[in-house]
Fold this sequence. Notes:
The complex is a heterodimer of chains A (97) and B (101).
Chain A: E1 11-16, E2 21-29, E3 35-44, E4 52-61, E5 66-72, H1 74-79
Antiparallel strand pairs in A: 1-2, 1-5, 2-3, 3-4
Chain B: H1 2-8, E1 14-19, E2 24-32, E3 38-45, E4 58-63, E5 68-72, H2 80-100
Antiparallel strand pairs in B: 1-2, 1-5, 2-3, 3-4
Amino acid sequence: MSALGTFIEKKIKVITTDGRLFVGKLEGYDNNTNLILTSTIERIFDLEEETEQIDLGLYIIRGDSVVCAGIFDEEIENSIQWTKVHGVQLKDTKNPF
Amino acid sequence: MLFFSFFKTLVDQEIRVELKNDIEIKGTLKSIDQFLNLKLDNISTVNDETKYPHLIAIKSLFIRGSTIRYIHLNPMLVDANLLQDASRREALANSGNRIGR
Lengths: 97, 101
């Protein structure tokens, strides 16, 4: 479980089992992949509408709803105008094909 | 623990992971734990990035084992017969334990 240790105090993106995307600074985690994020935002992509960004602040994500978490290149991240990016809503992980 | 040990032999190899939310990710396997949580480096999504912008700019990705549907491996990296034998032996050993208790 030390895999997440390298992400600590860094900005990460988290995808949850219901298909949502959160971006925030990883303050802590445990064996069950419970995550503590600060300065969290949720980004909602749409194929036509502008991307919506919701400020959430401190967020604790329960481990069983985490799909993946990644550290990203902040230079690339900041160079992207996220409101102009379009995308589909991710599926959840419970879809029976 | 067999598959944990098996995946440990694949560290630093390129693998493709298909998740239960239908996303497919290619990357270099960097670490694995007992839950089969993975860490991949240099990831790229197999899906169309213009439709799935969620993973843009990510360098290193932790994937929770419980959300993985398939792991696609290069057949050259796997001795399927050896793995089959080992998993039978482990299953046998486990059933023996249960009778013992």
